Please model this.
Amino acid sequence: MRLSKYFLPTLKENPAEAQIPSHTLMLRAGMIRQSASGIYSWLPLGLRVLRKIEQIVREEQDKAGAQELLMPTIQPADLWIESGRHDAYGPELLRIKDRHSRDLLYGPTNEEMITDIFRNGVKSYKELPSILYHIQWKFRDEVRPRFGVMRGREFLMKDSYSFDLDYEGAKRSYNKMFVAYLRTFARMGLKAIPMRAETGPIGGDLSHEFIVLAETGESQVYCHKDYLTMEIPSDDVSYEDDLEPIFEKWTSLYAATEDKYVKEEADVVGNDLISARGIEVGQTFYFGKKYSEPMNVNVTDKEGKKVALEMGSYGIGVSRLFGAIIEASHDDSGIIWPDSVAPFKVGLINLKSGSDDTDKACDDIYAALINAGVEVLYDDRKERAGVKFNNMDLIGLPWQLVIGPRGLANGVVEIKRRATGEKTEMSIEAAIAKLTA
Ligand code: 5CA
Model:
């Protein structure tokens, strides 16, 4: 992509409405714009990152055996009346009437709808277990939307739902999602720590919040220091294996917990516990028959008896992760994207746009990288070098490739790694080889 043609409305100054780095940087780097309180448009550069986060979430769900479907954003209120949540959910639920005065709502989550789809589609225990998920926009009319995409009103969520015949099956499904979550967040360069949690309006009695530690997190959390060095389950661990030992290992250190569970925090902090701020990027729930009993989600078991299914649900805040990754990875100059979610891998900087030599060299390098399948943002604008450097640092692409007349005369270009600031001079061939490796 040539920057001269790219819609990238960056800002020089920190916007007054932003209180935390991710919000400031997403606005400054031209990635989002607020449309209404807690509701955002995703501009081209931001959308590329959102899609990559979404894709990692999708791949890890698929590996765990979950199947993707897509449910609508608008739901009939009837289903929520049936489950009893229409009243229970309160003013966060955006209730809508259509032209025929039918009651609808903008879904804040999809337990009812998936339950309805499932009960009409499955009859026998032989069709279990099953985990279904979708990645869809949600709406919660939060009292205090804040921190940009971190606590929005409209936000993108991955929500999975598991259906099993008995508790043992449901726990196996829970463990699969638990391991998938550890892997998902690790692929984004995040250390997310599972913490025992309350279940709130979703219900149930087993729940974990996955918390990324960051100074700007909304909640105060405490966790055992060993969490910081604990290994993510390797690829050798299959989803067919018994995952209970992994679950035990990750949940047994004086369990990691939110402050509401810590009674004598002053005594325990300072020993093996770390006190930190955290961002909740996902939450898992086991709620047994909470929806399946009132909504009649049955199958016939081996003996031909009807049994209500054991269910769980598992959410990931896809758009919140965007902010969480920036909170965990930025410096004074801007964002530092982990390679896995970077909008482009390479920022190609032409230090003298308009000069035949540098233009020709940049065009050739750009073509070579694109042909090799590398995502490149080429700053071909007639701007000062300082402006280009600042801009590249701000948007945080993992690699910068700098082409100037002086270097070219000596047969070299410069590669900079954004994360470390390390700069290396090398031949054009060597630079292309490095970036396509
Ligand atoms: N039905 C369950 C699991 S599918 C559920 O809705 N869980 S949740 O309420 O915990 O939401 C799942 C994730 O969505 C949260 O962990 C959080 O990362 C994200 N999330 C929740 N509310 C917001 C919000 N207002 N803005 C951005 N992300 C949010």
